[in-house]
Design goal:
- Helix content is about 10%, strand content about 45%.
- With about 150 residues, the chain is mainly β.
- The radius of gyration is 15 Å and the shape is globular.
Length: about 150
């Protein structure tokens, strides 16, 4: 089974920008509200690629995740038809810090000003260095999940 182990933090400032290796513009939406099992169904466009992702319930920092490429036109139509009022628009910056890949999401639109850093780990007990631009951990705060942000006004 595919699994995602992720930790999430607020970002204090934009001092990460000189470290950026590349970036992608992301638009994403959720096809249904979270169901009783805690699953989400996401459509994402990353630059000119599109994906359908199914995520399971969180168990600590770990959850099942399955992601599949889909035609860009299909993703655009799904977002417009099913998610137009619940989309997230952000730029994701990628950088390495002391051997780990960090993804920094700079939100646009109604969440402009929010910047969140994520690190995916191979194990929940993995030790890693926290970059100086990283602040408070929000891994366990549902309000900072992309799903919750997509539903907020």
């Amino acid at each position: 089974m595919a699994q995602e182990i992720e930790r999430k933090f607020l970002v204090k400032d934009e001092s990460f920008l000189p470290l950026v290796e590349y970036k992608k513009h992301l638009k994403q939406g959720y096809l249904t509200s979270k169901n009783a099992e805690g699953m989400t169904f996401r459509v994402r466009i990353a630059d000119n690629e599109a994906f359908l992702t199914v995520k399971g319930r969180n168990n600590g920092m770990t959850r099942a995740e399955f992601e599949y490429p889909i035609p860009l036109a299909d993703a655009e139509e799904m977002l417009a038809s099913f998610c137009s009022d619940r989309m997230i628009d952000k730029v994701r910056y990628y950088l390495h810090y002391e051997g780990f890949l960090w993804e920094i999401d700079v939100f646009e639109g109604r969440h402009k000003g929010l910047i969140v850093a994520e690190i995916e780990l191979s194990d929940e007990d993995t030790v890693f260095a926290i970059p100086p631009f990283v602040g408070k951990e929000v891994t366990d705060d549902f309000a900072y999940s992309n799903f919750a942000l997509s539903m907020s006004q």
